[in-house]
């Protein structure tokens, strides 16, 4: 069985266990993870993210297998539900600069 078949048949609970092992170096029960297991857990959890999750994390693996990074602006839009800041011209004085609204 190759990694793609494993990921295709993996449950979400198993993904969470592997993710925990890769992040902390321990299984959820507290048993230590050896280095080979940690490497495998990291690889499998990243493959699962790419295949099954539409992650909103700043750094994740996309469905094409490439790393997806989000800018600070994209994250702000997602978390606040607001549109990007818009610039409105100031009509008071020709030397005034544009102002941001809704800050």
Describe the structure in your own words.
- By secondary structure, the chain is mainly alpha-helical.
- It contains four helices and four strands.
- The chain has helices spanning 3-9, 12-24, 35-52, 72-80, and strands at residues 59-61, 67-69, 87-88, 99-100.
- The chain has a two-stranded antiparallel sheet.
- Helix 2 packs across helix 3 (35-52).
- The chain is elongated.
- The chain starts with a helix and ends with a strand.
Helix-strand blueprint:
Elements: H1 3-9, H2 12-24, H3 35-52, E1 59-61, E2 67-69, H4 72-80, E3 87-88, E4 99-100
Antiparallel strand pairs: 1-2, 3-4
Helix pairs in contact: 1-3, 2-3
Biased composition (Polar residues): 83-92
Protein name: Transcriptional regulator
Biased composition (Basic and acidic residues): 93-103
Would you tell me the overall average pLDDT? 74
Structural shape: elongated
Low-confidence stretches: none
Rg? 21 Å
Q: Give the SSE order as H and E letters.
A: HHHEEHEE
What percentage of the residues does DSSP assign to strands (E)? 5-15%
Structural class: mainly alpha
Q: Sheet bearing the most strands, described?
A: 2 strands, antiparallel
Number of strands: 4
Distance between the termini: 54 Å
Number of helices: 4
Helix content: 40-55%
**Strand order, biggest sheet?**
1-2
Pfam family, one: DUF1315
InterPro entries: DUF1315
Protein name: Transcriptional regulator
Biased composition (Basic and acidic residues): 93-103
